[in-house]
Design a protein that fits this description.
249 residues; mainly beta; Jelly Rolls; 2 domains; nine-stranded antiparallel β-sheet; eight-stranded antiparallel β-sheet
Length: 249
């Protein structure tokens, strides 16, 4: 949806949540990105403990990184490309990959492509080895009714085991489908709407949202969603997990 005036935007930034909409995107070209641009939706500068960003690649565009202490999950929004780590893998729309700390990787696009990334510093757990890489496709992940509700289907992309300190899931709601309650928890979220539309309650505000909107939810931000329109609504979201809020607990 294009605003009627360049001074207008649906984006909203608050201390405990943010809605980032396409008309307010700023394209950047960080080091290591060739024939590609990046939009940072969420970062520590707004109070988050992770980053969520989108890379837009021209045909032949690429990014080369060494993760150091960080871990990353990439999800292909559109297009095709190749992922090079210790092995080479083909990527297409719906492909996703998780890479643990110290991984050196390259993503190179075969055609114009967009890839969504979630990145954070890995939190080691005593006696537990860091996780291994995952390269897969959303079509291989079973859709499960969330708390028994067939109108809210959940795909869990990453294992729930203790070596993983972050999770990324995909929710798909039938028209009129909702979250079962207003949630309030210490985990934070980064969310990207893949298709459809609906209304998100964030704290005490209510926001119409639709495809290509991004949302940040800080710890303890009240949150609830209802899908609207005539097609299902689908979004992918990040959460931190498997680490207590107080170190050593």
């Amino acid at each position: 949806m294009t605003p009627l005036h360049t001074a207008l935007t649906r984006s909203r930034i608050t201390s405990d949540h943010a809605l980032i909409t396409p008309e307010s995107h700023v394209q950047l070209s960080p080091p290591g990105w060739e024939k590609a641009s990046v939009v940072y939706f969420i970062s520590p500068q707004m109070g988050a403990n992770f980053t969520m960003f989108m890379g837009t690649f021209e045909a032949g565009g690429s990014v080369k990184r060494n993760l150091g202490d960080n871990e990353i999950l990439g999800y292909v929004l559109e297009g095709e490309g190749d992922l090079a780590t210790s092995q080479n893998s083909s990527l297409k729309e719906g492909s996703f990959f998780f890479l643990p700390p110290a991984t050196e990787f390259t993503v190179k696009a075969k055609q114009q492509s967009r890839v969504l990334f979630f990145e954070k510093m890995y939190e080691p757990l005593a006696g537990v080895n860091p996780p291994l890489a995952i390269i897969s496709h959303e079509s291989k992940i079973t859709k499960e009714p969330f708390l028994g509700d067939p109108g809210a289907l959940l795909q869990v992309l990453m294992p729930m085991s203790a070596d993983f300190d972050m999770g990324v899931n995909i929710f798909e709601f039938a028209p009129g489908g909702t979250l079962p309650n207003v949630e309030n928890h210490y985990m934070e979220h980064g969310l990207y709407v893949l298709q459809g539309q609906g209304v998100y309650r964030l704290s005490e505000s209510w926001y119409p949202v639709h495809k290509d909107d991004a949302i940040w939810m800080a710890p303890y931000c009240l949150q609830w969603f209802v899908a609207s329109g005539k097609q299902s609504t689908k979004y992918i979201y990040y959460k931190d997990m498997n680490r207590p809020p107080l170190t050593g607990s």
